Every structure is written in structure tokens, then in C-alpha cells.
Fold each of these.
Amino acid sequence: QEPLVESGGGSVQAGGSLTLSCASSTITTSSARMAWFRQAPGKEREGVAAIDADSHTSYGASVMGRFSISRDNAKNTLDLQMTTLKPEDAAIYYCAADSDSTGQPLPGQWLPRLLDSRQYDIWGHGTQVTVSS
């Protein structure tokens, strides 16, 4: 069974909304350091949003104010609410987890690592988001 499975991707028009969900069979999403990344064709993987073990959140500059990361403890999922979507938001969205992070938030000076892909060792296969203008 895959440790992280994303769902909720699809096609929307610019200005629309989508909610992505990441379900885990091995990670307790309520207490782990987890994040959403995205990668568009020809571009590097980009950190979108992250939530630390103490629930501190961090967002990429391009999605600040439009996206929101949250946990659904009852379902053991990590969710990403995306609003006011733009064509440049189109990408494959990946869920990631730091398997050694339960109860261990990053020290303050290390918080920029929340959106660094090297901080995470477990990855889902991704879900496609398409935004038409």
C-alpha cells in the first residue's frame, strides 16, 4: 500500500477552486511535518504549502492568501484548499511527509526548510491540476 495517496485534482477555469487531499496509511498526519509541492512541465519542483509538527504553516509567495493547508485528523489526511486559481497554478501536485518529524517541529531558524523538498523523505505520486484561462 502506498504511504501517501493524493486525490482531488482536476480541471477548473481560472478563478475557480479545488481541494486536494492526501491520505496516508503509515503517517499520522495530525502530528507529522507535511507539505504540498508542485511541478509544472519544464520547471523545478516548487514548495506550495507546509505544516509542521506543531501546526506552524508556511506558504509559497505565489499562493499566499489563496491556498490553505490543513489536517483532517478524523480522516488522517492532509488537505490543500486552493481558491482563485490561475493558469500558472497548473501542475502536478505532490504530497510529502517527513517520516521522522512526529512531535519534533523545526527550530525557528530552520523554518525555511518547510518548503524545501530535501526535508521530506516520503512522497506521493501526484495529482494533476489543470487551470484554463
Note: The chain has no helices and eleven strands.
Amino acid sequence: QVQFVESGGGLVQPGGSLRLSCLATGFPFADNPLLWYRQPPGKEREWVASIGKPKGSYADSVKGRFTISRDNTRNTIYLQMNNLKSEDTGVYYCNVGEKTPTMPWGLGTQVTVSS
């Protein structure tokens, strides 16, 4: 059974940093591209970043501020978020895929950027 457990969210001031983690199990982790999505308040989920073997790609809105990485020994992907802005607020989710998610969603982790 595929399962995603996202963690690391919280409340941070504009300009601050957070590191999100996602433990993903139930499928061949090392063989698959993985991605982060987010859902801002009142909006649709949107793609944030993806990682293949091993390069990452990013939405224009986060390029240069966010870094996606993976640890195949721990079945975990990460999202390092620097210079956070209020528009980064939302629930962050991980999933399998290059830009389109292919599995059911986990619960996500809430990120709130506010002074």
C-alpha cells in the first residue's frame, strides 16, 4: 500500500526557511521520479518541484529559493525552502511522478508564512 507521510511544516516569518520531509513507502522508491505539490488557501493544488535521477525541476515561482532532494536509502524526499514569502503559504504534499501525481495523496504538512 502506497503511503506518504509529510512533515516539517510550521509557522515562519517572511524571509525564513523550512525543510520539509516526505517518507514514501509501498512502491519501488529509487526507480521513480517524485514531486512536491502545494495547495494555497482557497486554491487548487499546484506543482512545486520534481526530482528524477537525480536532477530537479522547479516551478518558476520557487526557482532559486527551493531545493528538492532525495535519499533513496531512507525512502525520503526533502524540500529545502529559503527566503519564504507569504504566497508560499499552503499545505504541501509529496507524490510519485514527473509533474503529474500518480498516487493517492497523503495528509500533507501545513506551511504558514506570516509576520
Note: The mean pLDDT is 96.
Amino acid sequence: QVQLVESGGGLVQPGGSLRLSCTASGTIFNINDMAWYRQAPGKQRELVAAVSTRNYKDYADSVKGRFTIVRDNAKSTVYLQMNNLKPEDTAVYYCNDRDLDEWGQGTLVTVSS
């Protein structure tokens, strides 16, 4: 059974940073493409960043230059480093295994002064 467990969310002031982590179990992590999505209140879930098995990375325009996705195959973990956070980044962030279409439970990020 595949499990994705996210952590690292919380409350941060505008301009601050957070690092989200997603650790996978029950799967061969290094053969799957991974991604982070987010869903803000009243909005549809959107892709934030993705990383392929060959470490090709893609980002939403709204986070380019501020967010970085990193995968550590040895730890079966994908990270999302978020810098210069803005109030509009407030959302529940979800980890996604794109090949298996599995999702984590989500972690809440709130950017507010």
C-alpha cells in the first residue's frame, strides 16, 4: 500500500520561508515522477512543481524563482523549498505520485502577518 506523508506546513510571515517534505512508502520511489499541488480556499487544485525520475523540473509561473523542488531517492522523499512567501501562497499543499496517482493528506501553509 502506497503512502505519502507530508510535513513542514505552518504559519509564516510574508517574505518568509518554509520547507515541505513528502516521504513515500510502499513504492519504488525512484521510478516515479513526483509533484506538489496546492488548493486555496474556494479554488481548484493547481500544480505547483514537478520533478521527473531524470530530475527534470517544472514550476508554475507564479512560483518560479521562489520555490524549488528537490527529490532524494535515497530517502524516498521529495521536498518543496518555498522562499519569499506571499499571502497568495496560502493553501493546503499536497504531495502527488504522478505515476501511481497517489496523494498525501495535505499540509496547510498560511502566509500572514
Note: The CA atoms of residues 8 and 55 lie 22 Å apart.
